[in-house]
What does this fold into?
Amino acid sequence: MAEDPTKRVVDSLTLRFTGENEGGGDLHELRASHVAEVLQGLVGLTSDFDKAGVFTDGPIDSEVLVRPPQEGSFLIEVVRVVTENWETAAVVGTAAGVPSLANVIWWATKSARAELKDYERLENGRVKVMWQDDTAQEIPAAAFDELQKRKRRRKKQLQQILAPLSDARVEAVDVASDPEMVEAAPEAELEAPESFVLKRADYDAVRPDDEIEESDHIFTVEARMSAINFDDPTKWKVKTKEQTRSAIVEDKEFLQKVANGLAIRKSDLFHLRVRENKIVKNGRSRTSWTVLHVDSHRRAAGDDEA
It folds into this structure.
């Protein structure tokens, strides 16, 4: 594939689906709907980790392109192309330890197979993760933080990528980065392989048991803090004119002020930036609030400082 002078190919990934056709020969076809899901899952996963700054020091704009199919078992080859500031974009596996899309799929499927047991943030900028299966590995902090968010959407993306494994004819998928794209040996640096095999058990780990939809949006609102928990930022309550909601407070600067003795009265008014997350499961919805930032804080009208 000729490289566009306004873009830069920084990553290459192949998914080789293996198995047997009904006649007993090697697998050479997949359902079109499954192929579409694979590509949708890859685009969604890439977009989330792009925005989280996992592939660079900050958010980046890239897109996933599909290369022509090759002969043999059914193979999907994609490349991740940086479309903005491409001159400075690092190719995977450089000395800086730039993760590949294969690395991200490995971490994401690992977190689906083995739940998080404990973790430790290290001085080298990575996170040491201890899994429930008693294994451990170091993950870049940006990747670890993104894995802790939007878990239902992440499972949906992985379900799409592994969709062909729901077909009895498909036994496994070989996931691999293009070795010519990897400039160094990131496996030791990132503790994630550049090639590995995923099987039906991996698909079962991300297959949804229920019909679930998840959405979120961010808004600002003026509210009072009707309940304050000095020890647990996940157990605050926010009271607006319309409703009272339990909330998680993520504004670390505000929480530090509270810990240092910030006086808060029930009548005090706060201007908050809130993320509302809504999960619809089998037609029933559940909504949660997260206070991202406390923009301002003032006394209610008529409330003196005495």
Q: What stands out?
A: The radius of gyration is 23 Å. Confidence is low (pLDDT under 50) at residues 184-188.
